[in-house]
Amino acid sequence: MRQVKVAVLGAGSWGTTVAALASRNVETVLWARDSEVADRINDGHVNPRYLAEFTLPDALRATSSLAEAVANADVLVTGVPSHGLRDVLTEAAAHIRPWIPIVSLTKGLEQGTRLRMTEVIDELLPGHPTGILAGPNLAPEIMAGYAAAAVVAMTDEHVARSLQKVFSAPRFRVYTNPDVVGCEIGGALKNVIAVAAGMGTGLGVGDNTRAMVITRGLAELTRLGTAMGGDARTFSGLTGLGDLMATCMSPYSRNRLVGEKLARGMTTEQIVKEMNMVAEGIKTSAVVVELATELGVPVPICEEVYAVLHRGRGALEAYRGLRRSVAGSELDGTA
Q: pTM to 2 decimals?
């Protein structure tokens, strides 16, 4: 394991956390776009922009040079937001060694192309084993040492098992799953449902209503995920139900926070302007509605979230809209 070299692209909260986990097992370099952030990680073992209250491992090294970060990597991890991944990988492509596995941390879908992140990677860097690392993983809690679990989703089981050893820690358990599509869709759609849960919190709708929204959100996530080729079993696991619960319930969740601010009357533009981190649910909501329409999958919660985020609909109006949905069978997918 000590011979493996890992490069993590993106020094946000989750990219920094994953780099910290990997650096305890293998040689790891973290790429930060801002040279000042890279210098602070190297000199003071702290990321001043994200997770500033946590000390990073001494072994973790950072750089603002993309070429330097990827040139000698045996494993490449991408933690760049969905809207920036294509540009970063295009710039890095000439320096990436052939055949090395590429692991995405990004829980979103690309606008315009409607591609999953692994599909973007496959398009730009064909020939590499691609997959994701995902689960109910809130960066501050993992950095604080709380127990958590994640999934390495790869179609190649041998590669997935090797990557387990790279990211595992005594309090961070890593499972494998060959269902890349299901794990990736679960991670993307839960952000949209979390915005709905946040709106409920901001409106003071009560625990019963929030539980209903989360549960029916899981049904939407499962319906669309299976229609896109995911395994239904995946959506009751860590990257489905687990990630959905954490993102909808935690005060650390940036997508839930977006929903709370929408409920207070803020516009999407105002929220984005004041946020320090990317909330993937904002952009993903539009892609989800497009895909659901194309596949004929009902997603009323996602549609209401999209209308609030991008069509000027009020949060209270959205919740009233959900009340007008006709209840069918819970088991046959018509509810």
A: 0.93
* CA 127/CA 197 separation, integer angstroms: 39
Residue 2 has pLDDT above 70, yes or no: no
User: In the 3-class helix/strand/coil scheme, how is 134-201 assigned residue by residue?
Assistant: ECCCCHHHHHCCCCEEEEEEECCHHHHHHHHHHHCECCEEEEEECCHHHHHHHHHHHHHHHHHHHHHH
> How open is the CA angle 155-158-164, to the nearest 5 degrees?
95
pLDDT computed for residue 3 by the predictor: 86
Which of these, 230, 220, 138, lies nearest to 183 by C-alpha position? 230
Please enumerate in sequence order all residues whose Cβ is within 8 A of that of 188, keeping only pairs 6 or more positions apart, or say none: 107, 108, 109, 116, 280, 284, 288
List 149's β-bridge partners, or say none.
173
pLDDT in tens, 268-295: 999 999 987 788 999 999 999 999 999 9
Q: Please list the active-site residues.
A: 190
**DSSP string of 280-319, one letter each residue:** HHHHHHHHHHHHHHHHT---HHHHHHHHHHHS---HHHHH
> How far apart, in whole angstroms, are the C-alpha atoms of residue 187 and residue 135?
7
Q: What domains sit in the chain, N to C, each tagged with a CATH number? A: 5-178 (3.40.50.720), 186-323 (1.10.1040.10)
Contact 229, 239 (CB under 8 A): no
